[in-house]
Amino acid sequence: MAVQEEIMDTLILGIESSCDETAAAVIKNGRYIMSNVISSQIDLHKKYGGVVPEIASRKHVELIIPVINQALDEAGVSLSDIDAVGVTYGPGLVGALLVGLTAAKAIAFTADKPLVGVHHIEGHIAANYLQYPELEPPFICLVASGGHSHIVQVKSYGEFEILGQTRDDAAGEAFDKISRAIGLGYPGGPLIDKYALKGNSNAISFPRVHFNDGTLDFSFSGLKTSVLNYLNKMEQTGEEINIPDVAASFQKAVVDVLVENTIRAAKMKNINKIALAGGVAANSQLRSEIKSTAQKQGIDVMYPGLILCTDNAAMIGCAAYYEYIKGKRADLDLNAIPSLKLS
Ligand code: KG4
Ligand code: ZN
């Protein structure tokens, strides 16, 4: 009689609370999303024009348990079915991180499950594995979010080489600051994206910063200053500011640099696959321009669906799965590391 081997599924409960999204998800075998619950605090922080860390932490405390319960319910599983708990432990806001991390440790302890600590950027990169079940490393990944702008060579699961990064503001941070300056509000990225569609991206000439030292680093603070100077000058001379034109010209300046440096990285490493990750990867112009420019040079471009670009726990569950199958486990004294480095 043939012996039938039973292949067991591996279920990971992912937890994310590094900024202003309280999120939990259940991921099967690293690639299949069984549930993905995200409770965004955007409305709460809107009136302050940005995330207020103490308010974020307090809201995470209120939401974390209901969000985890909902993720388990929607996946149709209970804690006993879970193989491991994966949680973001950095980088991010320390108070916010601690809420998700403490919940994860409590679950790991009481349900006797292994705990896996996940780097938030590793999570963003992993969002691409959920979107493209066939995707395997190596590839080049542009990670651009509110806190990070990195060009990374993904060598294998959880193994990275940073090829370029911002020397000052992150790309998303620049979107948020300029949005505030032109009166569009928070979060800046989606609003600038929307207004830019109605504007002329050649209307105003804003700088694109490139370094001559051979790095693929970014700098967005000069661009930010240039936009602020333009706004001041217009105000002083009493000229009318065309908001869609400012949004479109600013966005194009950011997108040009992100696209150029990312494609240069792919060519430098002779890799013909580029993935996008992080909140700024939701930008419609970045998505279309990098795709069309790269395709002309024989490079494929991938990006996650919008909900997997901004913060979520499905990406954390996916990254945790690959660490889990490598045998990585965290102790219950795992601490939040606000400025955790990648690799
Ligand atoms: O990845 P994320 O949710 O949080 C961090 O890890 O920072 O990214 C949030 C950032 C914000 O700065 C937001 O303005 C930006 O991503 N963002 C966008 C767009 N959607 C979100 N930036 C440009 N265009 C968008 N459509
Ligand atoms: Zn993020």
Highlighted features:
343 residues; 10 strands; binds 5'-O-[(R)-(carboxyoxy)(hydroxy)phosphoryl]adenosine; globular; 11 helices; alpha/beta; binds zinc ion
Topology summary:
Elements: E1 11-16, E2 21-28, E3 32-40, H1 42-46, H2 53-75, E4 84-90, H3 94-110, E5 115-119, H4 120-131, E6 139-144, E7 149-156, E8 159-165, H5 171-181, H6 188-196, H7 221-236, H8 243-268, E9 273-277, H9 284-295, E10 300-302, H10 306-309, H11 314-325
Parallel strand pairs: 1-4, 4-5, 6-9, 9-10
Antiparallel strand pairs: 1-2, 2-3, 6-7, 7-8
Helix pairs in contact: 2-3, 4-11, 5-6, 5-7, 5-8, 6-8, 8-9
Report on this structure.
Helix 2 (53-75) runs parallel beside helix 3 (94-110), helix 5 packs across helix 6 (188-196) and helix 8 packs parallel to helix 9 (284-295). The protein starts with 10 loop residues before the first strand and ends in an 18-residue tail after the last helix. A 5-stranded mixed beta sheet has the order 3-2-1-4-5, with helices on both faces. A 5-stranded mixed beta sheet has the order 8-7-6-9-10, with helices on both faces. The longest helix is centred in the C-terminal third of the chain and has 26 residues, at 243-268. The model has no long low-confidence stretch (mean pLDDT 95). The protein has 11 helices and 10 strands. A hairpin with a 2-residue loop joins strand 7 and strand 8 (159-165). It has helices spanning 42-46, 53-75, 94-110, 120-131, 171-181, 188-196, 221-236, 243-268, 284-295, 306-309, 314-325; strands at residues 11-16, 21-28, 32-40, 84-90, 115-119, 139-144, 149-156, 159-165, 273-277, 300-302. It is of the alpha/beta class. The protein binds 5'-O-[(R)-(carboxyoxy)(hydroxy)phosphoryl]adenosine and zinc ion (ZN). 5'-O-[(R)-(carboxyoxy)(hydroxy)phosphoryl]adenosine binds next to helix 5 and helix 6.
